[in-house]
Design a protein that fits this description.
By secondary structure, this protein is α/β, with parallel strands linked by helices. Helices cover 42% and strands 21% of the residues. It folds into 2 domains: 3-253, Aldolase class I (TIM Barrel); 303-375, Arc Repressor Mutant, subunit A (Orthogonal Bundle), CATH 1.10.10. The structure holds S-adenosylmethionine (SAM) and iron/sulfur cluster (SF4). Iron/sulfur cluster binds at residues 13, 16-17, 20, 22, 24, 61-63, 96, 119.
């Protein structure tokens, strides 16, 4: 039976962090209407997906834990009643430490959520304040312990590197702290100064002291070394997991498998095309009030474009591109198209090749852009 993964976007947060350009905003007036509309969207797809099984679900944002948990329960209830859910492998909810309490944790557990992905960024309280986070490191630790005591045994923590005034010691202390708490998975993102953010405003005014690019790389390498020494396998450029705790949902994106995105601005890869929803909240609510779809655009991806996308996303994975998987998906040997490119980068030390796969070397991960360019048409 065909499978697909489901992403549900909850765009509400307590407060906007200074670095964040995700489609998310403070304010709760629209929550009830928005969550009803997510259910209307689920209803729109129900018949077309009646022969599909849901593989994984990711409730992301924004901060899904910032709204009343009953809204999340209603959505999950609708899914269980109307979709094929017997073989769901993983249901993740994104959480912000300042927004968890015992009742929420209990309800999430009751409705089948089995993975928590919590944003922390740093354990240094001064850094947390300087990037506009709503919580302290102490509040993070108590949220984390509460989730553990409620029975969640699969928890990811997001950390950031390259933050203004962050030192290598800050970063290592944060990673160490999260490892000591026993996180099953750690995502480690290099700060990107996004256009529509407060950090970008400060940056343009010359008010930000950012680590140099060399320092950013040094932080990254030290972090990778520490995580690997402590038993976290790096399975993607920014993601580290204890054995068997890789995020199944994200692997769907990286392997370019089918997914449906619901809610504001979400993207889908389903029915042999890509399509995406509006990012305008008013339009989203108005169009669903009329019982129509909030899709803003769609495109059919030609096979050759999908092939390049598969290679570029696959190279971000530490297992790289598995030659047999490539062949069965695209009906052609990797060698037939890319022999010269592979030879060039194996010679240059950026790619490693064996009988089964090709993957980036350590140096290749730092210079992945160069390799990616050569795989493009
Ligand atoms: C949707 S948020 C996570 C959940 C929750 N909203 C929170 O922040 O606690 C996803 C993650 O993206 C990362 N992120 C957001 N903006 C970023 C940026 N500009 N540069 C690098 N990482 C970023 C952060 O690590 C954040 O935790
Ligand atoms: S990082 Fe998370 S909490 Fe902060 S604004 Fe973005 S989505 Fe909201």
């Amino acid at each position: 039976m065909s499978k697909f993964s489901l992403y549900i976007h909850i765009p509400f947060c307590e407060k906007k962090c200074y670095y964040c350009d995700f489609v998310s905003f403070p304010g709760k007036e629209q929550v009830s209407l928005y969550m009803d509309n997510i259910i209307k969207e689920l209803a729109l797809y129900k018949d077309r997906l009646s022969s599909y099984e849901i593989d994984t679900i990711f409730i992301g944002g924004g901060t899904p834990t910032s709204i009343e948990p009953e809204y999340i329960a209603s959505i999950m209830d609708y899914i269980y009643q109307n979709y094929k859910t017997n073989h769901i492998q993983e249901i993740t909810i994104e959480a912000n430490p300042g927004t968890i309490d015992q009742m929420k944790a209990y309800i999430y557990k009751q409705i089948g959520i089995n993975r928590i992905s919590m944003g922390l960024q740093s354990l240094n309280n001064n850094l947390l304040k300087s990037i506009g986070r709503i919580h302290s490191s102490e509040e993070f630790i108590s949220s984390y312990k509460l989730l553990r005591s409620t029975g969640f045994d699969n928890i990811n923590i997001d950390l950031m590197l390259g933050l203004p005034c962050q030192t290598i010691d800050d970063l290592i202390n944060s990673i160490d702290g999260v490892i000591n708490l026993g996180a099953n998975h750690i995502s480690l993102y290099s700060l990107i100064i996004e256009d529509n953010t407060i950090l970008n405003k400060w940056y343009k005014k010359g008010l930000l002291e950012l680590p140099s690019e060399d320092m950013d790389r040094e932080m990254y390498h030290k972090a990778v070394e520490l995580l690997e020494n402590k038993g976290y396998k790096q399975y993607e450029i920014s993601n580290f997991a204890k054995p068997a705790y890789e995020c199944k949902h994200n692997l769907i994106y990286w392997k370019v498998k089918p997914y449906l995105g619901l809610g504001l601005s979400s993207h889908s890869n389903l029915f042999n095309k890509r399509f995406w929803n509006t990012s305008n909240l008013k339009f989203y609510n108005d169009i669903l009030a009329k019982g129509k779809s909030p899709i803003e655009g769609e495109e059919i991806i030609p096979k050759d474009v999908e092939l390049v996308e598969y290679l570029i996303l696959g190279l971000r994975l530490n297992d790289g591109i598995i030659k047999e998987e490539f062949k069965s998906r695209f009906n052609i040997e990797l060698d037939n198209i890319y022999r010269k490119v592979i030879d060039k980068h194996v010679k240059g030390g950026l790619l490693y090749e064996d009988e089964k796969s090709i993957k980036l070397t350590k140096m290749g991960r730092d210079l992945s852009n160069m390799v990616e360019l050569d795989f493009m048409p």
